[in-house]
Amino acid sequence: MDKENSKDKYLLSSVNNALKVLDFLGVRDSASMTEICKGCSLDKTSVFKILYTLERKDYVFKTSNAKYRLGVKFMNYGEHVAERQDLVEVATPYMQKLQQSCEHPVYLGTLNTNGKVIILHKEKSEAMKSADARIGFEMDAYTTSLGKVLLAYLHTPILHGVVEQYRFRPFTPNTILSAKVLYDVLETIREKGYCEDSDEQYMGHSSVSAPIFNSMKQCVAGLGIVYPTELPNAVKEDLLQKLLPIAKGISEYLGYQE
User: Fold this and answer.
1) What are phi and psi of 139, to 5 degrees?
2) Would you state the pLDDT for residue 80?
3) For strand 219-228 and strand 205-213, is the pairing parallel, antiparallel, or unpaired?
């Protein structure tokens, strides 16, 4: 380990060494174990264990001439990151327009592999700084309108697998606490085409969210507005009417056709 990293008491050496190997392979077509040991300044035993683990998990591939190269998982991750970045670039001007119109925070989110909603992009509002979730922030999907919209349009087997892993916990008295209630809510979302929630994750915070679809009719993201719970119903309805055409516009830009 280099001198700078050796001073970092929180750095996990085994993970750091594995990443050094991946970085080394990332700039080469392939490399032998001897070349990796020399290039990464690691002993043969450590490199063998790292490569064995990475190969078992498809992060590296061993060729017929005993050389190693990056595996197919990195292609999948690269496509996933590129897709998200493209989505953010497409959605940003729409979100800016929506935020200027409604004067409340606007969020773009998607689900991660743990069934949590992750914030991809946001347009902040000075009027509601308490709702300022950072980009990359993760939330339990069953606690937010953004998350529930994303859950609603999952294929049924995937949805059941996600919900089965939830350990429902009460963030507020209004939080959904059972799979049965959640499934009923998701059915309503599919019927209405959007989701509203009230004080489910934070007291005083409510939101409304709509799905964003791609050309394959897959729900790739959710678009939501967060606002104070005490807003009059007429104002909340106005926010919904501003949200829906914006979400539809992003979907159409991505090639979605009803």
Assistant:
1) -135, 150
2) 54
3) antiparallel
Homologous superfamily of the 77-253 domain (CATH): GAF domain (3.30.450.40)
Domain boundaries, the chain: 3-70, 77-253
Question: Can you give the pLDDT at residue 192?
Answer: 94
For residues 67-88, one letter each, b for 16 or more C-beta atoms within 10 angstroms of the residue's C-beta and e for the rest, the string is bbebbeebeeeeeeeeebeebe
Candidate CATH numbers 3.20.20.80, 1.10.10.10, 3.30.160.270, 3.40.50.1820; the one for domain 3-70: 1.10.10.10
Quote the pTM value. Answer: 0.67
pLDDT of residue 128: 63
pLDDT tens column, 226-240: 999 999 999 999 999
Does the pLDDT at position 7 exceed 50? yes
